[in-house]
């Protein structure tokens, strides 16, 4: 449907479903991360930012060192929800960019891509932050 509408409106420009899906997912991940940071009121330690930072440290105590090798650096996304959602955001954005590298098109179509991916990102954010989690 989106491809048919875009072809009618923008001629040869056709959005690519995978990068659009990745940018939507990136926005959704950012929505969850922001919700956790500003509105989460549950008591699950993985998702509760006021508590989850302890998950990366042995016995929740930074002075005792990392809970497991890399728990405060490379593997931090596996210790709490906020870091997991931000890592997902980054992976999806970088993935969408990588999928577009080498895709030759007229400059105006890059502008159309920018708008489409911005809308997809915002829609993903809105879906989680405003619609699902509120």
What is the element layout, followed by pairings?
Layout: H1 2-10, H2 17-38, H3 49-52, H4 81-100, H5 107-132
Question: What does this protein structure show overall?
Answer:
This protein is mainly alpha-helical and 134 residues long. The protein has one domain (15-132). It is 60% helix and 0% strand. The chain contains 5 helices and no strands. The protein has helices at 2-10, 17-38, 49-52, 81-100, 107-132. Helix 2 (17-38) packs antiparallel against helix 4 (81-100) and helix 2 packs parallel to helix 5.
Descriptors:
134 residues; mainly alpha; 5 helices; elongated
Low-pLDDT segments, ≥5 res: none
Largest sheet: none
| Whole-number total of structural domains | 1
SSE series: HHHHH
Assembly form of the protein: single chain
Rounded mean pLDDT is 91
Helix content: 55-70%
Measured by DSSP, the beta-strand proportion falls in: under 5%
What does the radius of gyration come to? 19 Å
Q: Count the helices. How many? A: 5
Shape assignment: elongated
Structural class: mainly alpha
How many beta-strand elements? 0
Report how far apart the termini are: 29 Å
């Amino acid at each position: 449907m989106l491809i048919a509408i875009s072809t009618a409106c923008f001629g040869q420009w056709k959005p690519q479903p995978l990068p659009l899906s990745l940018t939507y997912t990136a926005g959704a991940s950012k929505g969850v991360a922001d919700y956790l940071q500003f509105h989460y009121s549950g008591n699950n330690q993985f998702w509760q930012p006021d508590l989850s930072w302890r998950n990366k440290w042995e016995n929740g105590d930074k002075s005792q060192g990392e809970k497991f090798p890399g728990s405060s650096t490379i593997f931090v996304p596996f210790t709490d929800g906020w870091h997991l959602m931000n890592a997902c955001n980054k992976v999806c954005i970088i993935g969408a960019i990588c999928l577009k590298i080498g895709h030759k098109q007229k400059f105006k179509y890059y502008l159309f891509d920018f708008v489409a991916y911005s809308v997809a990102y915002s829609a993903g954010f809105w879906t989680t932050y405003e619609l699902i989690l509120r």
